[in-house]
């Protein structure tokens, strides 16, 4: 289980005030006439707390390596990008839920610190693509190993929320 800490000690500071959030329609899969149980609410509450604790833990790991949380998230998005082509600045903005101009500024800071490199795409010279530099890859791996260790400690909470979600929406399986 994750460590129990007072809520006031959890830090989830927003790094960039220009954040876009996708519109999410309400779920149509919940059984509306079946009330949620106290166990369902407990699982949701514990999951929310676990997410906040993990984010605070991850942000501290980034700070320990001289990064902001958003810089760490950008390095992770660059490394985790699916597909055969490297991630573009526009894709990075989408991944981080920020505006394109904010992603451009973020990438400039990463490039300045030799954590990432940008180059014109070979397939489309109008696109700028990103890749990690060796220093950025090494820092990301260190933070990621630490974060994965912390996630394994919270596996019970994740199992509880999955069970609660399946009870609340049994037809989704």
Give the CATH level 1 class.
Mainly Alpha
CATH superfamily: Winged helix-like DNA-binding domain superfamily/Winged helix DNA-binding domain
Question: How would you name the oligomeric state of the polypeptide chains in this document?
Answer: single chain
* Distance N to C terminus: 27 Å
Q: Rg, please? A: 19 Å
Query: Which regions have little confidence, pLDDT < 50, spanning 5+ residues?
Result: 1-21, 23-29
Q: Reading side by side through the largest sheet, how are the strands ordered?
A: 1-2
Q: Counting H and I runs of at least 4 residues, what is the number of helices?
A: 6
Q: Mind describing the biggest β-sheet?
A: 2 strands, antiparallel
Second rung of CATH, namely the architecture: Orthogonal Bundle
Structural class: mainly alpha
SSE string = HHHHEEHH
Number of domains: 1
Helix content: 40-55%
Q: What percentage of amino acids are in beta strands? A: 5-15%
Instruction: Report the mean per-residue pLDDT as an integer.
Output: 82
Which descriptors apply to this entry?
mainly alpha, elongated, single chain, two-stranded antiparallel sheet, 54% helix, disordered N terminus, Arc Repressor Mutant, subunit A, 173 residues, 2 strands, 6 helices
Topology:
Layout: H1 38-64, H2 69-80, H3 89-96, H4 100-112, E1 116-120, E2 128-132, H5 134-153, H6 155-168
Antiparallel strand pairs: 1-2
